[in-house]
């Protein structure tokens, strides 16, 4: 098994329709952006150790990445850490990140 993070960008039930139709999901691992899809797992291979992960929304035609807050995540060798990210009830709230390791 490769050492990796499986990041799943999600939306809040209240405003998810707006984000899914008007913005693209972006996963940022150690400062490198990865285009992602709402509700779909995005696999990023990493080395064992500490990493900074953020998920944000970029509205079509704009540059700023909104709602992204760096969160430290530790990955052990040969581990796949599952990272769930979801924005808040209000569209301006940052994404909350939680992690789990499948057994």
Overview of the structural elements:
The model has no long low-confidence stretch (mean pLDDT 93). With 103 residues, the chain is mainly β. The chain has 1 helix and 8 strands. A 4-stranded mixed beta sheet has the order 4-1-7-8, with no helix packed on it. A 4-stranded antiparallel beta sheet has the order 3-2-5-6. It has one helix at 16-22, and strands spanning 4-10, 23-29, 32-36, 42-45, 49-59, 71-75, 80-86, 96-100. It has one domain (4-100): Sandwich (Immunoglobulin-like), CATH 2.60.40. The longest helix is centred in the first third of the chain and has 7 residues, at 16-22. The protein is elongated.
Radius of gyration, in Å, reads 13 Å
* Distance separating the two termini: 12 Å
Helix content: under 10%
Overall 3D shape: elongated
**How would you sum up the major sheet?**
4 strands, mixed
Detail the poorly predicted runs. Answer: none
* Spatial strand order of the main sheet: 4-1-7-8
Strand content: over 45%
What is the CATH class name?
Mainly Beta
Structural class: mainly beta
Core attributes:
103 residues, mainly beta, Immunoglobulin-like, 1 helix, 8 strands, 7% helix
């Amino acid at each position: 098994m490769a050492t990796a993070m499986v990041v799943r960008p999600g939306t809040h039930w209240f405003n998810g329709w707006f984000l899914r139709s008007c913005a693209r999901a972006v996963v940022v691992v150690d400062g490198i952006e990865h285009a992602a899809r709402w509700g779909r797992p995005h696999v990023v291979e990493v080395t064992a150790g500490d990493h900074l992960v953020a998920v944000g929304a970029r509205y079509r035609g704009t540059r700023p990445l909104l709602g992204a807050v760096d969160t430290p995540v530790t990955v052990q060798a040969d581990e796949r850490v599952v990272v769930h990210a979801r924005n808040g009830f209000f569209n301006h709230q940052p994404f909350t990140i939680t992690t789990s390791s499948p057994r």
